[in-house]
Structures are given as structure tokens and as C-alpha cells.
Specification:
The protein is of the alpha+beta class. The protein has one domain (about 1-80). It is built from 4 helices and 4 strands; from the N terminus they run βββααβαα. The chain has helices at about 40, 45-50, 70-75, 80; strands spanning about 1-5, 20-25, 30, 55-60. A hairpin with a 7-residue loop joins strand 2 (about 20-25) and strand 3 (about 30). The longest helix has 7 residues, at about 70-75. This is Palmitoyl-protein thioesterase 1. Keywords: Disulfide bond, Glycoprotein, Hydrolase, Signal. Belongs to the palmitoyl-protein thioesterase family.
Length: about 80
């Protein structure tokens, strides 16, 4: 399962949600990682199991929402499609 975070995303907020992170409960400023979340700890979607099996891939690109080069796509994503 491949997740891509666009580090300068102007569409998705918080950006960490592109890796299943989200705002910490009870406030709207600090985020928690996927691994810190109840979603992960209780394995509600099977992501913890996938992570333990080495089947989660976290990629990041320094760009705005869905802005990546063909070269980046070919080098980083195409191998997972083969």
C-alpha cells in the first residue's frame, strides 16, 4: 500500500493525513502519525498488520497537490505497479 505525501500541499489539510496521520484529539493544531493513532493501534483498517509485514510504503515529494514530474512518477511509483 503506497502513500504519497505532497510536502507543500495546498489542498489537503493536514498534509500528514496523506499518510493517514491526523489532528490529535481535542484540538486543531498538532498532528499525530498513523502509528500514534487509535486507527492504527486498534488496527481498524488492517494498516498495522500491513506495516508489520512491510507492506506500507511512505513516499514524499516536495511539491503541491499531485505535482510531481514524470521522472519522479516513473522512478518511485511505477515499480509498485509491476
Amino acid at each position: 500500500f503506497v502513500m504519497v505525501k505532497f510536502l507543500r500541499d495546498s489542498i489537503v489539510d493536514p498534509v500528514d493525513s496523506e499518510w493517514f496521520g491526523f489532528l490529535k484529539p481535542g484540538q486543531a493544531k498538532e498532528t499525530e502519525t498513523l502509528q500514534e493513532s487509535t486507527l492504527y493501534k486498534e488496527d481498524r483498517l488492517g494498516l498495522a498488520e500491513m506495516d508489520k509485514a512491510g507492506k506500507l510504503v511512505f513516499l514524499a515529494v516536495d511539491g503541491d497537490h499531485l505535482q510531481f514530474s514524470r521522472e519522479w512518477f516513473n522512478a518511485r511509483l511505477v515499480p509498485f505497479l509491476r
